Amino acid sequence: MALKLRLTIVQFLEFFIWGSWLISFGNYMSQLGMGDKIGTLFATAGIASFIMPTVAGIIADRWVNSEKLFGILHLLGACCLFMASLAVDFSTLYLYMFLNALVFMPTIGLSYSICYSVMAKHNMDAVREFPPIRVWGTVGFIAAMWVVNLAGWSTSAHQLLLAGGAAVFLAVYAFTLPPSPPTRAKKGSSLISALGLDALVLLKEKRMAVFFLFAVLLGVCLQITNSYGSTFIGSFAGAYPDSFAVRYNNIFLSVSQISEALFILSIPFFLRRFGIKTVMLMSLGAWMLRFGLFGIGNPGAGMVWLTLSMIIYGMAFDFFNISGSLFIEKETPARFRASAQGMLMMVTNGLGAILGNYGAEMVINRFVNNTATPSWPAAWFIFTAYALVIAIAFALCFQYRHEKVKN
Question: What is the CATH topology of the domain spanning 195-407?
Answer without folding.
Answer: Growth Hormone; Chain: A; (1.20.1250)
